[in-house]
Design a protein that fits this description.
There is one protein chain. The protein has 297 residues and is α/β, with parallel strands linked by helices. Helices cover 38% and strands 22% of the residues. The chain has 10 helices and 10 strands. Strands 1, 2, 3, 4 and 5 form a 5-stranded mixed sheet that branches. A 5-stranded mixed sheet has the order 7-6-8-9-10. Strand 9 and strand 10 form a beta hairpin. It is elongated. The site of tetrahydrodeoxyuridine has 14 residues, from helix 8.
């Protein structure tokens, strides 16, 4: 849906996918299909220039959006199918809603200010800009509230709630404990909950899911990893694992699976529900390990 152009070298690898999914979430919520947008990720100097030339505003900003559709007053994309169809591009088969320009310098500063990742901030700015392209604005308090609510819903769909910024070890562990209630462990009665944090700030939970064949049982950690990878997250910074009866340190298979997607040395937080937790690093739990970079295919 997004045609992203970026000549910035330190763009996080997970950002384009998160931006794409942020845009898709907005369009899904708005009920529009087969639409696209052009995105340019630039530095402060370039966005300043564009802001001056296009809008007569002589300063840099975090994000600019230039809608191609002129919505009727008070209308958004939802009720404007005919107007949107005019923007049809036969090459891509999409109707282009407009252009977005994002300053990576501003995004980086804002990410730092809010204590979350740069990828997440780029995702948020994309959702904000897509809403503008869909006819939303924040001129009046009531319009601002409507746009804010849509932003929150879109970010929630991506698993990025505003509270994510506060996902410290305790919060990850609490989320893992909560998952104990979903565990399906009729054979061992050993319930396990997990909460995995991705580099882009998203968190994914999991629980153990046993099977009458026993061998088909899936551990809580791998359940969380499967949910995360299937949602496009592949680099993890931490995992919390909670046991009901006792702390549940990850089994060997789970250590190896976590090793595959570890962003640096992954932090492992382990404890028992209602008790304290301990932390270790994956390197400590799986020293001298074998990983993707050992296979040069
Ligand atoms: N289990 C996990 O969920 N994670 C681990 O790392 C260790 C074991 C689960 C699998 C099974 O349902 C139960 O604990 C007993 O082995």
């Amino acid at each position: 849906m997004l045609d992203i152009e970026c000549c910035i070298s330190d763009m996080p690898a997970s950002a384009p996918d998160l931006m794409e999914r942020a845009a898709q979430a907005v369009c899904r919520l708005e009920g529009v299909e087969n639409v696209g947008a052009y995105v340019r990720v630039v530095d402060d100097e370039t966005i300043h220039e564009i802001n001056r030339e296009q809008r007569g505003v002589d300063r840099p900003t975090d994000v600019l959006s230039f809608p191609s559709v002129r919505y009727r007053p008070g209308e958004t994309a939802r009720g404007s199918a005919a107007l949107i169809r005019r923007e049809y591009d036969p090459d891509s088969g999409l109707c282009f809603l407009g252009d977005i320009v994002i300053s990576i310098d501003r995004a980086r500063a804002q990410a730092q200010e809010f204590g979350h990742s740069l990828a997440r901030e780029l995702g948020y700015l994309t959702a904000h800009a897509m809403l503008h392209l869909c006819g939303y604005d924040h001129m009046t308090d009531s319009d601002k509230a409507k746009m804010r609510a849509m932003e929150d819903r879109a970010m929630r769909e991506l698993g990025l709630t505003r509270e994510d910024a506060a996902y410290d070890d305790q919060a990850l562990f609490d989320a893992a404990c909560k998952m104990l209630d979903s565990a399906y462990a009729p054979y061992s009665h050993f319930r396990v909950g997990a909460c995995l944090q991705a580099e882009d700030g998203r968190v994914f939970t999991g629980c153990n899911i046993e099977n009458a064949s026993l061998g088909a049982t899936i551990c809580a950690e791998r359940c969380a990893v499967s949910k995360a990878v299937s949602e496009g997250a592949r680099r993890f910074t931490a995992i919390a694992i909670a046991g009901d009866e006792k702390p549940a340190w990850p089994c060997g298979i789970c250590r190896q699976v976590l090793r595959e997607f570890a962003a640096g040395d992954l932090r492992v937080i382990v404890g028992q529900r209602g008790g304290a937790f301990e932390t270790a690093t994956l390197e400590e739990l799986l020293p001298r390990s074998f990983g993707p970079e050992d296979l040069t295919i």
